Amino acid sequence: MDRPRIAPHLSLPTLYTMLPASPLNKCILIPLYFLLLSPAVAAQQQINDSLLSSLRAHPQKDTVRINLLNQVSRMYFTKDASMAASFGEEALLLSDSLHYTPGKIWALRNLALVENTKGHLDQQMQLTLNALKLAEVLGEPYMLGVLNNDVGNIFTELNSPRDALPYLKKSLAIKMKRNEKAEIGKTINNIGCAYIALKMYDSAMYYLQRAEKIKLELNDQRGLAYTYENMGIIAMVTERYTDALRFHQLSSSYYKEAGNLPGVVKANLNLAEVQIMLGDVKNADKNLDNAKALNDKLGNAKNELIYYKIRYELDSARKDYAAAFADYKAYSNRNIDFFNAEKGRQISRSEEKYEAEKKQRENVLLKKEQHMHLATIQQQRVLVLSAAALFLALLLITVMVYRLYKRQQELYLELNNKNQEVSMQNRIILEQNTTLENLNQVKDKIFSVISHDLRSPLAILEGLLFLLKDEKIDASQFRMYTDELWRDVKNTAYMMDNMLQWASNQMKGIGVKPDDFDLTLLLSREFDLLQTLARQKEVKLWHELNKNIMVYADPDMIRLVLRNLINNAIKFTPAGGEVQITAQVGNDIAEITVKDNGTGIPLENQHRIFSNIYYSTTGTQNEKGCGLGLHLSKDFVERNQGQIWFNSMPGTGSSFSFTIPLSEDTEINPRAYTMVVQDHPVNGVRVLRR
Fold first, then answer.
1. Alpha helices (H) along 470-546
2. Is 358 exposed, middle or buried (0-12, 13-18, 19+ CB in 10 A)?
3. CB–CB of 624/547 below 8 Å?
4. pLDDT of residue 471
5. Which of 668, 687, 666 has the alpha carbon at shortest distance from 676?
6. Could you tell me where the DSSP H helices lie in 139-280?
7. Strand partners, 590
């Protein structure tokens, strides 16, 4: 398929000056787009209707119907992805039932194109590779040319242009051999896309101009839309904004003529970005609204990310800083999700590559061992046969045969010893792999928390401090955000504490240091800070620990348990709610309960609370967590010879309880006192203060 790069390279923008402003009210009607499309769309619709009529007139489940289904699916994927998917799935099922491989290949390819319109590049890659494997077995060159081209396109969109170029050049060689001019133009265009991603703009423009020449000769207006879009991207990157505007206008008109809705969305986004650079904010706003309206129908997540990036630039240019701040937050959240998804794909590809290389090394070793065994066996056979032939002739040969037999036994013994050594080495390698995998999980979890949960509050804090530093916002406006920033930073500090404790526990273990201490005093020292967090959310926080409770445990571990349970209760309690801490003392244990009347835990997620599955949700005011607090709390309570459990009902609140052993030394003074006395010659000794 002839495809441009979806959008220019995404980068996190610098936060510009922001002041409060009212958001613009937008109301865009999608049908307006279809009125703007040229008469070429009507002609294309007649072709589509003709294909649909042929399909309805042929209900027989045979290869003719499969070919019609694939043609209709291919025609509709840029206009109605759901219809294209429906026809493609029917063609795939029917091809499977009839064992019709060409039909199955084109059905898989059409379903892959549908996934591309939704921005699901991983699913598109899997479907396309499945189709390519079938085409390689079939050996049909036209299919191989098209599918290699598709794989190259997907790698380009996944920001792996170096992986894309071998597939694209292989596709070009196949098409050049068949002299398919239209297909050659598409692949040359796509090679230009890969060089754009590699920032080799001169090479990219060389291939794009070749593609333009071929498409103009063939009057391929559909393909010219992609080529002019790529030329516009190069002009934009090299700051030739007037040329960029001209190319994107040409691309937009061709996309509209072809009725290519995803292309129209991209063209509007590109035009808006160029118009912002040229100062034409009115038309930029109009193009952004049009792109948003169409993309809401298509559901392409990557285009939505690009929309908020350009919307942020537009609102900053119009000095609508409050709207720009909201757009920045929306872009930042989506960019983090996109970053995590991209990270997951890279990790998955690295693991697959590692497994493939590992299997290849194992195969090489196995082949070497087989050759060695075969050579040894062949040699033994020759020696045994020679010895048997000469055994009847000479006694000397009989002695030699006996010695050879002994040598054979020694070889077998040596081989067995080597096998045992190899087995022992394999066990050591397996143990090392297990240790490395555990450490890799710890590393991945730490990176996931840092990239996902810590970047967002730090980015917002950085932006506001930038505004305050450059005097773009005064102190009174800054104070509007201080409460929310303080709560976010405090939650981030708690997450960092949990994460570091967990990482230390996982990687080198944490030793328990039990001691006698006053649980009430420990809670009081933590209570003021937690009380401040509760007041920020207008949550009532109180406890009933009014007497000394001497326990025997690690005070630092119990402090972290109390802090996590109380902080979680505040996090999931809405304004106006309350959190209560109570304690009961038994014969040899103390039971502490943290109870709230918040949102509660959904029944389907309760089994995950204390499991090894890290479970994290946002609080009532979108507070974030890393999913480690309760896991750490359970581990620390059990290390201190206690138990922990909870009860929760959705909508009514939760209560978490845990036990710890009481102190066995009843003579310990739970509090330290200082006594000040006065020795007076008349009044005698008198206590002044204690």
1. 475-507, 519-536
2. exposed
3. no
4. 67
5. 687
6. 141-157, 161-178, 181-197, 201-218, 221-237, 241-258, 261-277
7. 585, 660
Tracing tokens 């800054």 back to the chain, one arrives at 478
Q: Which residue has the tokens 């019609």?
A: 68
Q: What integer pLDDT is reported at residue 101 of this predicted model?
A: 94
Identify the bridge partners of residue 680 per DSSP, sorted by sequence position.
684
The predicted structure's pLDDT at residue 515: 92
Instruction: For residue 206, give the nearest of 191, 221, 216 by alpha carbon.
Output: 191
Q: In Å, how far are 192, 359, 362, 366, 444 from 355, measured between CA atoms?
A: 33, 6, 10, 16, 19
Residue 632: count other Cβ atoms within 10 Å of its Cβ: 20
d(CA 256, CA 290): 13
Task: Round to whole Å and give the CA distance between 249 and 467.
Answer: 36
d(CA 71, CA 65): 10
Q: Which helix (H) or strand (E) holds 564?
A: helix 555-571
Is-contact 81 298, C-beta < 8 A?
yes
CA terminus-to-terminus distance, the chain: 87
Report the SS3 class of residue 686.
Answer: strand
**pLDDT given for residue 89 in this prediction:** 93
Please give the single-letter amino acid code of residue 690: R
Smallest CA-to-CA distance from 449 within 650, 644, 631 is with 631
Contacts for 593 with CB less than 8 Å, ≥ 6 apart = 581, 582, 583, 584, 655, 656, 657
Q: How many CB atoms lie within 10 A of CB 636?
A: 25
State how far the Cα of 124 lies from the Cα of 108, in Å rounded to an integer: 9
65 C-beta neighbours (distance < 10 Å), count = 19
CB-based burial of residue 637 (10 Å sphere; 0-12 exposed, 13-18 middle, 19+ buried)?
buried
Amino acid at position 551, single letter: V
With CA atoms as reference, report the closest residue to 78 among 49, 48, 53: 48
CA 625 and chain centroid, separation: 17
Q: 646 phi and psi, to 5 degrees?
A: -150, 160
Separation of alpha carbons 678 and 670, rounded Å: 26
> Per-block average pLDDT, block size 10, for the chain (690 residues)?
47 33 32 41 63 87 92 83 90 93 94 86 91 91 92 89 92 90 89 90 90 89 88 91 91 87 90 90 90 86 87 88 85 75 56 62 78 84 85 87 86 84 83 68 54 56 67 67 65 62 58 90 85 86 90 92 90 92 93 93 86 70 72 89 93 94 67 43 42
Give the β-pairing of 515-518 and 550-553. antiparallel
Residue listed under structure tokens 């393909």: 223
In terms of phi and psi (left: phi > 0; alpha: psi -120 to 50; beta: otherwise), the region of 25 is: beta
Q: Across-strand partners of 654?
A: 648
For residues 482 and 32, the answer to whether their CB atoms sit within 8 Å is: no
How high is the pLDDT of residue 25?
A: 34
What is the pTM for the complete model shown? 0.43
Query: Cα 662 to the chain's mean position, in Å?
Result: 46
* Chain centroid to CA 544: 45
Residue 536, CA distances (Å) to 294, 373, 618 in order? 41, 76, 17
Is 185:2 a contact under the CB 8 Å cutoff?
A: yes
31: helix, strand or coil = helix
Q: What was the pLDDT predicted at 19?
A: 30
Rg (CA), the chain: 36
